[in-house]
Amino acid sequence: MIVQPASLEDILVVGWLQEGPQYRQFQPNQVFSSNAVDRLRGRRFRRAFFTQSATALPRSGRFFEYLHQVASRYGGEVRPIEDYDQCMLADEVDRYLREQLDLLDGGV
Q: H or E stretch including 14?
């Protein structure tokens, strides 16, 4: 199975960093634990995908509160990891449509 790499602007939030390698589409520096809100400070993202285990940790509420603040402030999204394929497909459609518009603009 071919895994499409995540955009460098995307991050993954897991419960435990040991989960990160299961999600080969994300580089290690794109993976954050919901136990470590301080590691996220100053980081902007386009999309933050999260696993179910990320929401199950006792202190994850504070992390997700901060995550939603950053998303709201800078125009990012917070989505469950199950939405990853759908988001990648939407990105592909957007790229295709932009290419088609560029061709039309260049042809006029």
A: strand 10-14
